[in-house]
Task: inverse folding
């Protein structure tokens, strides 16, 4: 039994990994470039591309804000392999040259190179300071100082924020860096032209920041750290760390951890799913038995056809129709007719102060229609399978033996055939669960139930990537747990499986 | 049976003998006709227009105007609408010379080629072609013009729904069915939505989206599923092992959530939706095809083909695949139904393509304006009817193709 469970658990790893990779890919694809973000959020002047003259200082501060956003999700790092620890001065010079206007280089190529350089982070700070210190590279001082300020810009991580002295140090340093960006313009013919009257003073100030041993700790890296960063300072590893340490922060609801938002919502969805499975099974197993025992009667055929129609009815249609007819107040002959069922939520406003029976009644009143919509779709498939299974069992030898020895018809059905056909019903549970998780989205939307599905939709509409990822992972996790439970149940009731793994 | 029919003919005859199948196929044909001939059913441009300068058929000029129909799938359907009568004649004339498959392939190929040819002027180039294509004047022969210039025009015949699907008619937001349009006096047969657009017109053009998504997404998923299933079943061994794990992962994946995440983050264009549905729903097909290939690959004809030294892809796709088509056809029918449902569901939760009018988007409008019954029932019943028709045909196909039913 233990080996069986372990085997099932191992099979789930690729599924989970699959959803993580897809989430990660979507996250990387979705994120707009730094320049686009700055243009969207900027005050017009700041985010003009590379081609035009750039004013020092202000633009740099604006980009820094967006770099913070990139760093929160690890979008500033390379996807899977990080070789930035091994940058040296020549690499950085070549990189800077790629951002200069030259024949055969388009503006978008230049701005991509520029963005990559700005996001290169603390490993590029050392080489950039070498560039600033080299008098032979005077034409690169402007762009190098811009890149220096942005690479050396330190984002405040939550751990820092607990220490007020550290916050002060980081803020001041970031400010100094932003103020000392050397003004320059890029010219089609001459390349970069430094045209700042205070260029020399600013350059010295920047070099001084890097020369200070107290600051150097944040920028310089030891050899071991460089090697480790190849695999552990990448977008994917950051994403996994954020996810598993629960430090994903929602973007549309500022300063809230994704998992604490989800914790407020998942229970409703969980309860809805459990109840709907119970309802679906409780309804369709007796129906299947009845149909199988009255094979080819009028009742059997009527049930079959009705269930077929029910199967084709989209649940969003049924849900909306129910909402229209039963959950909307109407006016008839000038008199307000209150709706039969509530149209939002799972409990009334003051239900916390209700007595327990009244609270349960209130819950049932709110939950009846959502549960119905959630479970009716599975009635058909479940009861069809039940009927088919039972019919197969009726033809089996052991049923004939039981008949021959004179067992009653009820005894044959309930003691012999049913137990064997219930076995396959459990395996159906897994497929049913996946459908339920899609259905619950629509039901929660229609009946305004603030569950996990509602949250997921909300995140999807607001393009809140961390929240979307968190709720997807939790949904899939819940689903996998459900499938695991179904598998274990199957092993518990099937003696053959038990003995194989004994 | 008086004369020996081919197995396909026998199957079709058997299929047609089921009442449900006849009903389903008729319903599907109606939906297809509505989708293809949507511009002739709803639109402001006149079908026939006669004034001092003579008699014209402005609708035909409007069919290929990119300003009236900016979406590529609309262009495809308009092409089909125009070409269908000719293709039907060709089908009939060539019935003794070419096989049905060949006629189908050539007809489809012609349409697709024409469609691609129509896209060419849109490619980035500095020609006046592009300008010509983009800035074609809209047809002046609209119902509005007819109404304003009353008396000067002697004759104009308009589509039964003289409203465009994407035009907002001022002052007619959420009008009940059969209300008159104040400007032209025409009726909104099935009312309007909150934005003042005609519901029936949107339904006609929404049929195009549903059918496009259903067919293309299912085609893609069939393609992927067949290739993976065929490799898995024919090669066996570790290929099978790895591919089966992948299929298992896809099987117990909440596809709708995955589609939702991708569509929300990547984009809401109808083509992204189609692509994503196709890319995520092939697991069932792969499993089916694998089962068939496992059964077929031990047959003698496969051994014979291998002994002849044929390449493996040829054995897989020319020899085995035609013998494994039966379950594929059945699963395709249900696949289309599923894709239509997913597309409407996506639009219903607010992640549909906002620039095109699909049934799901209308349904969402119904959810937001819950008191207006026609916004709920019209699109809902349409989705229901299409899905039911597809499911009916699928069920009947399953029975008709079942070799046990041959007797």
Result:
């Amino acid at each position: 039994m233990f080996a069986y469970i372990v085997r099932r658990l191992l099979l789930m790893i690729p599924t989970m990994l699959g959803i993580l990779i897809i989430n990660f890919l979507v996250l990387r694809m979705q994120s707009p470039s730094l320049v686009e973000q700055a243009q969207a959020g900027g005050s017009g002047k700041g985010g003009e591309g590379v081609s035009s003259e750039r004013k020092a200082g202000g633009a740099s501060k604006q980009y820094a804000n967006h770099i913070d956003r990139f760093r929160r999700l690890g979008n500033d790092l390379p996807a899977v392999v990080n070789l930035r620890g091994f940058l040296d001065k020549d690499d950085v010079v070549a990189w800077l040259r790629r951002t200069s206007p030259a024949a055969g280089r388009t503006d978008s190529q230049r701005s991509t190179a520029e963005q990559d350089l700005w996001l290169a982070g603390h490993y590029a700070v050392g080489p950039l300071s070498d560039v600033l210190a080299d008098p032979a590279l005077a034409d690169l001082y402007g762009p190098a100082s811009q890149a220096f300020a942005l690479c050396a810009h330190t984002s405040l991580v939550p751990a820092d924020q607990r220490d007020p002295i550290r916050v002060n140090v980081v803020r001041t340093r970031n400010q100094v860096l932003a103020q000392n960006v050397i003004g320059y313009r890029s010219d089609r013919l001459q390349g970069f032209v430094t045209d700042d009257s205070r260029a020399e003073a600013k350059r010295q100030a920047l070099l001084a920041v890097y020369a200070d041993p107290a600051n150097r700790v944040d920028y310089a890296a030891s050899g071991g750290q460089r090697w480790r960063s190849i695999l552990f300072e990448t977008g994917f590893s950051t994403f996994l760390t954020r996810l598993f340490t629960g430090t994903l922060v929602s973007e549309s609801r500022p300063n809230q951890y994704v998992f604490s938002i989800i914790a407020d919502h998942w229970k409703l969805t969980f309860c809805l799913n459990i109840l709907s499975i119970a309802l679906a099974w409780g309804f369709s197993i007796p129906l299947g038995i009845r149909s199988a025992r009255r094979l080819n009667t009028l009742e059997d055929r009527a049930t079959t056809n009705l269930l077929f129609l029910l199967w084709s009815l989209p649940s969003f249609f049924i849900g909306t129709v129910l909402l229209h007819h039963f959950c909307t107040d109407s006016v008839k002959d000038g008199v307000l007719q209150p709706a039969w069922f509530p149209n939002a939520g799972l409990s009334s406003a003051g239900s916390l102060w209700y007595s327990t029976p009244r609270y349960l009644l209130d819950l049932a009143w709110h939950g009846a229609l959502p549960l119905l919509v959630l479970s009716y779709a599975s009635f058909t498939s479940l009861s069809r399978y039940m009927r088919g299974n039972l019919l197969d069992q009726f033809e089996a030898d052991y049923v004939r033996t039981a008949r021959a020895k004179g067992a009653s018809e009820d005894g044959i059905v309930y003691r012999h055939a049913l137990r064997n056909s219930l076995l396959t019903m459990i395996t159906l549970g897994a497929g049913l669960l996946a459908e339920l998780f899609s259905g619950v989205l629509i039901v929660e939307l229609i009946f305004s139930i603030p569950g996990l599905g509602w949250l997921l939709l909300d995140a999807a509409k607001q393009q809140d990537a961390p929240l979307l990822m968190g709720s997807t992972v939790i949904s899939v996790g819940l689903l996998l747990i459900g499938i695991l439970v179904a598998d274990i149940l199957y092993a518990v009731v099937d003696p053959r499986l038990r003995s194989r793994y004994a | 049976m008086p004369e020996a029919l081919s197995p396909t003919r026998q199957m079709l005859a058997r299929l047609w003998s089921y009442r449900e199948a006849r009903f389903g196929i008729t319903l599907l044909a109606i939906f297809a006709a509505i989708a293809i001939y949507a511009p002739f059913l709803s639109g402001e441009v006149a079908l026939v227009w006669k004034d001092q300068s003579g008699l014209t058929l402005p609708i035909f000029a409007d069919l290929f105007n990119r300003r009236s129909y900016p979406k590529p799938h609309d262009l495809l359907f308009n092409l089909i609408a125009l070409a269908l009568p000719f293709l039907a004649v060709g089908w009939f004339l060539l019935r003794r010379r070419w096989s049905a498959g060949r006629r189908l392939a050539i007809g489809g190929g012609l349409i697709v080629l024409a469609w691609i040819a129509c896209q060419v002027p849109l490619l980035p180039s500095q020609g006046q072609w592009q300008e010509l294509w983009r800035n074609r004047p809209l047809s002046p022969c609209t119902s509005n013009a007819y109404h304003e210039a009353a008396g000067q025009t002697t004759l104009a015949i308009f589509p039964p729904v003289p409203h465009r699907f994407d035009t907002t008619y001022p002052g007619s937001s959420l009008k009940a069915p059969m209300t008159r349009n104040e400007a032209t006096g025409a009726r909104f047969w099935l009312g309007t939505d909150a934005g003042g657009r005609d519901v029936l017109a949107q339904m006609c053009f929404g049929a195009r989206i549903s059918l496009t998504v259903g067919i293309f997404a299912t085609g893609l998923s069939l393609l992927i599923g067949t290739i993976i299933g065929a490799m898995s079943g024919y090669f066996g061994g570790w290929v099978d092992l790895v591919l089966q794990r992948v299929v298992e992962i896809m099987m117990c994946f909440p596809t709708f959530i995955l589609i939702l995440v991708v569509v929300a983050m990547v984009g809401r264009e109808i083509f992204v939706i189609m692509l994503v549905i196709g890319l995520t729903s092939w697991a069932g097909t792969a499993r089916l095809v694998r089962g068939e290939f496992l059964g077929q690959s031990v047959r003698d004809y496969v051994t014979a083909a291998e002994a002849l030294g044929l390449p493996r892809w040829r054995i897989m796709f020319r020899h085995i695949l035609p013998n494994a088509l039966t379950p594929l056809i059945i699963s395709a029918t249900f696949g289309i139904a599923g894709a239509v449902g997913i597309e409407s569901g996506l639009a219903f939760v607010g992640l549909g393509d906002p620039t095109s009018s699909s049934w799901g988007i209308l349904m969402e409008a119904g959810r937001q304006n819950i008191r207006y019954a026609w916004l709920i029932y019209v699109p809902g019943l349409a989705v229901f009817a299409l899905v039911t028709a597809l499911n009916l045909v699928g069920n009947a196909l399953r029975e008709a193709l079942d070799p046990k039913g041959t007797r």
Notes: The first helix of chain B runs from residue 7 to 16. The longest strand of chain B covers residues 48-51. The radius of gyration of chain B is 24 Å.
